[in-house]
TrEMBL record, chains A, B, C, D:
Keywords: Ion channel, Ion transport, Membrane, Potassium, Potassium channel, Potassium transport, Transmembrane, Transmembrane helix, Transport, Voltage-gated channel. Its main location: membrane. The keyword Ion transport applies. It is a multi-pass membrane protein. InterPro entries: Ion_trans_dom, VG_K_chnl, Volt_channel_dom_sf. This is Ion transporter. The chain crosses the membrane at residues 26-51, 57-74, 103-120, 149-170, 176-196, 208-233. It is found in: Membrane. It comes from the Bacteria. SUPFAM superfamilies: Voltage-gated potassium channels.
Length: 268, 268, 268, 268
């Protein structure tokens, strides 16, 4: 394969600057969406019974496209191994395989977990989203406060372990709190304000403890929110680090050309 | 129709500065509320059986008023087509039609979807709310952070697709996770901390995964909140309304003496 | 009654500066709590059957105290009518009456709504809380953003009316969406992420619409939070309005005595 | 015991600066996790039936380690009484006892509440977390706004008492609102947006009141969030760590040149 063709292919597949590159991304996005919808519909018994054949054909078309894309991706990069063993390389391979497994081992292909691998393609959409600036901003703010959020969630889990055990002792197996793991699961359901209602306390003291857990959950949701908000605020205010060389004023506006305090030209 | 009368009519219907214009808005608001309540009550079988006749009369009175209003609106504007095909023009027409459909095709009029069209009138209340400054402020803040919120919600949906498929594989049809769309629906119910409890996981691993989804949902609600809060804060701190008389730049810092764009002295 | 005694009484009952005034407030708080717990316990059939007599005696003691307090309050103020027809005056009277109604009309006294009037006393606790500075701060922030919150809640209710009607048309009476008011109730339950699960959508399209409502509710909770947070922030930063008379620097710390910029004494 | 050995032991157990001290902390953490998982698994009937013997052996190993640790802790501190009667001293003793109670009183040891004492060890993890800076920051922010949060939660509880009583009067025992405490429990479940669905209103007016409670709960969650966020923001902006050398005042403004308290030049 000529180096020029490979370079051109790389441009189309990996970049989004040229019209061909943009078209490729849009087609890819559409095919991923079609593929995801197909997998979903196939899982609905009534639809699979009527349109099973059509869904199978669509899935084969999509699979063939993804196979060609996978080969093209390997062919166009200089170090194929780096792509193959990257996160998206593995995703691309795994999400293409199910149909071939279906062909080679017809019985095995009906296994749910193998067919569902095709849904891994949605991760690709996340990659396409990286072109959207806003998503990077969100991820930056989340990533900056990730240690604090992790510490908070860890504290929440310890709280759930203690509260769950307490509820197990108070309510006991008769009320559905059959063992400690189930009780902890119930405490998480309650503290996060989800509240399925499949297990509910029946003793007065159990209901009192539940009320305490709920009010706790209602109150401490403020913590992650506060953390992320404070991070967003800092990111949006700390934009310009320029300091005026004449009067030493700082906190200039983002694209200021002149000092707001003394009128000095900041770019000189 | 004399131009003067048309101008007067326009003033009453479209503006709220004159006493007549204000009265018109209040009467309109009241009639919309009466209409909405009537539609609601008609849907309650026990009330419809007893007060059906009275509700029908009220609805006819309201419909006649709205018909007159619709004609007056067309008559008072210079370009009727612009109003007729605008969002509120279509709303006004559609919400007035049901009673006439009822008269012309008695059988058809009993169709729910046609009768419910009358409820579209509540949109008019939103239009009347535009006079309230606070609602514009809210909409501005929401609209400014709408791209970030959309990116966030998109990420949430992808997360729900992956988690929902995983739950479908783990739990299977016996626990109510009968197909992937239902499992995704359940994941949305759980992640948003709604938690109906119509479908609940029964396997230990399914319950563990649910706990993960819940804690995720409890944690990432911080993201939209943080976004909107940061936007509100920015809006409330950017108070300087000075505009540079040389280059017309605005959004100056609070105590700026010189224009950040051209260096002009703002206080002169 | 001597004017001196009345002044003393007023000091004890209405103020909390003297030891006697403080003691009075603590005793009042305790009696209110005892009264509230008594009313609650009386409503529990199993407890009322065993301890009915004791609860009755306690309630009489509390009622007599509140009667004396009510008379003392009227006696100690200069304009009794102002107290009698004030919010707390009405609360005090209504919460004292039930026991006497019980005595005069033994049959009527068993009516729930009359007995429950005694619980109105908890409002008094709110009044005692006014001495706590933090509660005033909270109320100020809430009160300042009350118009925006009202506009937001109004928008939420209109959204619920439209979505509820839509769900009624989609799901229909078979799924529990028996009429429009019930459907709107269900939409509020879902949008606020409460999710009882007593009514749940069963059609695929209904479940899709529910997912939309849930994600909406999950997203727009950011609005009131953002409003209140922005208000709190403003309140906590805008504390000192002093401006230095030497160098014109402002934004001084809350209890600053000297200018942070030039060292001038601010209180001179 | 030689003073040197005791000092060394103290270094390993109470500090995390030396390699031996770090290793001790990691081993302790692992043993706590093993112990917690063991207690959980023992409560699951199906697992206890098959692996009861193995779990018993693991629990004995862990108990022996914790016994040695407890003795070592007492031996290595200068004032053993201070440790023994401290929060963590009591936790350490109580969480070690259950197995010995099991040995001495075989019948009693099967009591849930005694076996569950072993779970108290998770508190130790919280102590190990103190080395993580982020957790201190979180606790500081929470602790600073604790009075405001307490006042808020107190207001919420009073609201729940009043609303719960109202719901009890409206719905009555037929709908599951059997007494006032249960109705208040239901109000807390609803206001905190948990929504189990074990008790749900059935009368139209009861459903209307529920909608009011839900919208209230949806709105006022903004308050604790706003409080904690404002606190986080203040903590992250108050960065100046200068302390005046004349009057020891701290928390100076970011670019303060003079002490706000005594007017001293801070830069000298």
């Amino acid at each position: 394969m000529s180096g020029n063709f490979r370079k051109k292919l790389h441009e189309i597949i990996y970049e989004a600057d040229t019209p061909a590159g943009k078209l490729f991304d849009v087609v890819l996005l559409l095919l991923i969406l079609i593929s995801v919808v197909t997998v979903m519909l196939e899982s609905v018994a009534s639809i699979a019974a009527v349109y099973g054949e059509e869904l199978n054909i669509i899935e084969w078309i999509v699979t063939i496209f993804f196979t060609i894309e996978y080969i093209a991706r390997i062919a166009s990069v200089k170090k194929p191994a780096a792509y193959i063993f990257s996160f998206y390389g593995v995703i691309d391979l795994l999400s293409t395989l199910p149909k071939y497994v279906d062909l080679l081992f017809p019985g095995l292909g009906f296994l749910l977990s193998i067919r569902a691998l095709r849904l891994l393609r949605v991760f690709r959409i996340l990659k396409l989203m990286h072109f959207v600036g806003a998503s990077n901003q969100l991820l930056t703010a989340l990533s900056k406060s990730r240690i604090k959020i992790a510490v908070f969630l860890f504290g929440v889990i310890i709280l759930c372990v203690i509260m769950g055990t307490l509820m197990y002792i108070i309510e006991g197996p008769e009320s559905g709190f059959v063992n400690i793991p189930i009780s902890i699961y119930w405490t998480i359901v309650t503290l996060t304000t989800v509240g399925f209602g499949d297990i509910t306390p029946v003793t007065p003291f159990g209901q009192f403890m539940s009320a305490v857990i709920m009010i706790l959950g209602y109150g401490i949701i403020a913590v992650p929110t506060g953390l992320v908000t404070a991070q967003f605020m800092q990111d949006s205010t700390q934009k310009s680090t320029q300091v005026c060389r004449v009067c030493n004023a700082d906190h200039h506006k983002d694209k200021a050309k002149y000092c707001y305090n003394c009128g000095n030209n900041l770019n000189k």
